[in-house]
Amino acid sequence: CSSDLLEKIAGELPGESFVVTQDLADPAHAADWIPKAEEALGPIDVMVSNAGLLTLGAVATFDPEEGERMMAINLLSPARLFRAVLPGMLARKRGVIVNVTSVAAIVTLPGWIYQSASKIGSATFSEALRKELAGTGVHVMTAYPGMTDTPMTQAGLDAYGRKGLVNLLPLGDADEMATRDRKSTRLNSSHITI
Description:
Blueprint: H1 3-12, E1 17-19, H2 34-41, E2 46-49, H3 64-92, E3 95-100, H4 113-132, E4 138-143, E5 148-149, H5 151-160, E6 172-173, H6 174-184, E7 191-193
Parallel strand pairs: 1-7, 2-3, 3-4, 5-6
């Protein structure tokens, strides 16, 4: 997501926002922005991990570095971010972590192997974390959305080819889902967008 788009979204949100662009392909530095954000707006009460990378292709011909990049963005960096906000949430005895994974964590398709592996790892991480944090006041939710009609999904499908079962899967409308989410979700806290 471009910093211009993030600034536009932040301008539409109520209250103060702190916009950060961070390269999540480098898990060691994925959480570097958190101290500045907390200095500007206070402790993080809600962490939503929705960043992702989708590249499709057969394993025999897939660029291993691209596969590892997908693992970093979809699995390793969210784990670092969750770990970074947990001590503060546990000390305050409250907080929410939302991990947006994918239906690819449940349904595996040819050409989706790196996507499925990274998403099932991410889903397992947050599902286990939810159980680990039971009774602490910190809540973890794992979301498994289906394919959504976004530039990332379209690029992945175009590069791999719309063939076989992939061609039969419906694409959800991103604007409609965002509008529904906006109507049903009310957060009384500062917004941090990455």
